[in-house]
Amino acid sequence: MFKHSIFLRIYAGLVVLVAIVALFAYLLVQIINYQRAQEYRESLTDGISFIISEGIARQQTVQQKIDWISDASDLLELPIYYVDANKVDLSRAEQKRISQQKAAVRYDAQNSIAYIIIGLKNDTNHYLYVKVDKIGERQMKALPIFILDYLVYYPGQEKEYLAKIQKHFSYPIEIAKVQNLPLDSEQIGRLRLDHSIILYRDSATVRGTTISIVSPIPSTPSEVLVLGPVPLFNWMPFQLAAGITLLSLFVLSLGVYGLILPMQRKIREVNYALNRMKSGDLSLRLPIDGTDEMASLASSYNSMSDHIQRLIEAQRELMRAVSHELRTPVARIRFGMEMLAEEDDYEYRIQQVDMIDKDIEALNTLIDEIMTYAKLEQGTPSLDFEKIVLAEVLEQVATETEALKTQKEIIVEAPLPSVIADAERRYLHRVVQNLVGNAVRYCDHKIVISGGITDAGMAYVCVEDDGPGIPEEDRKRIFEAFARLDDSRTRASGGYGLGLSIVSRIAYWFGGRIEVDASPTLKGARFTMSWPAKRFAKSNKKKLGSKESLDN
């Protein structure tokens, strides 16, 4: 059922598309956040790496540098190594960062360990290698100590040099008055005891939660060194969320457009075909691609076009044939009327009146045949299906035919009375009557009528004769309106060429088919009409349907 419905495919496609877009958005967020986290880690280490590099550069000897590094390691409680540059394999991006006096950070996500590589000022032969396996208050409170150690060399110019190194920090650093900070008495007391404090601020703004480190300056008790506020890493900032949402909606809209585009293209084709039909061109047919609703619509359009075109052609042919058929009896009536006007013999006049009456009866019969054929051809019959005993219909037609004194032997091989099929009695009687009448005209001596139900559940009626039969190349043409294989013989027998056409249309509306072949026993023609013995619809009214069962 899934492949037969374009709407189910679209709905399922939307579900799959939403899942794919959600997965795509998740992976994109992870990739972007991985890069953002790396940039965040690097931004936090750039400033302090510069200060550490400056501190080591002030040491005169290698031993002094090693001692300074050892003190820094103890202060940070982190292992710091003074390594040869040729032992460290740097990528091009890491080399570029170190050349810009920035730190290179390598993060091991599995073990949650960061490795910081710091270039040394005036020492290209060594790198400082820091292993960061923990970040706590001890490490954060140690950061101001390195900055104050740097500012010790510039007494009285602390603020000026602080402003110069600000470019190396991603967060603000400044010297501020204690009274200008939003501190409580406990925090001020801790500053007076030369203890650094950490301030947490949770804001509803884009910055979110921030951390500030406040450290006392020994030389000026009224002033403190403030680092921050430093924003904590936000995994889903507003800009990223908005960007990912817009991108996801864009990808989703493209996917929806891709799902709708085939249906839109097919609807455009149908609309174009309908416009062509409206202009009178019925030759265009739609391609049938698949088995979904659009394919069904294309098939229905093609069937409708075929039906309309066939109706128009049948109407034209009917008009030509009717005008031709009407000329002969009308001409005979006119001739008879002229003879009546000129003849005084009473008996001859009575004879002419009888002939005129027969011609009028022939006209009535022709009109009745034409009306029946037109009603069936235009797809308007209302068929009242009921349970029919096939034997009753076959025997009724045989009895009616024998009453006409045709001098033909009619044999009825009727099925058992228990053989019942769903049919419209009036039209089934008309089928058997037309087939038997056709056989009477062309047989030599014998006609066999039979019927029944096959193992496949198809009901059938069959009429065979011992006449000359029908050539194989003409077996389809005989079901066309006013078709005659032998005009002179048909006219002599009184036929109009509509009987088999009516049978063909009744078979179509019964949902069956009519076939003709050679009789295996009588060697003449054998006509067999078959149709479903049981109707599957709840209603017994057969409505106008698609042309699937017969195309004669």
TrEMBL record:
Report the GO terms under cellular component.
plasma membrane
**Chief location of this protein within or outside the cell:** membrane
Chain segments annotated as transmembrane: 6-29, 238-260
Protein keywords: ATP-binding, Cell membrane, Kinase, Membrane, Nucleotide-binding, Phosphoprotein, Transferase, Transmembrane, Transmembrane helix
Q: Reaction(s) catalyzed by this protein?
A: ATP + protein L-histidine = ADP + protein N-phospho-L-histidine
Its EC number(s): 2.7.13.3
Give every HAMP domain span.
261-313
Has the keyword Transmembrane helix been applied to this entry?
A: yes
- Enzyme kind, highest EC tier: transferase
- Report which residue ranges the record marks as coiled coil: none
Where's the Histidine kinase domain?
A: 321-535
Provide an example Pfam family for this protein: HAMP
Q: Topology with regard to the membrane?
A: Multi-pass membrane protein
Q: What is this protein called?
A: histidine kinase
State the organism of origin: Acinetobacter tibetensis
Name the encoding gene, please.
bfmS
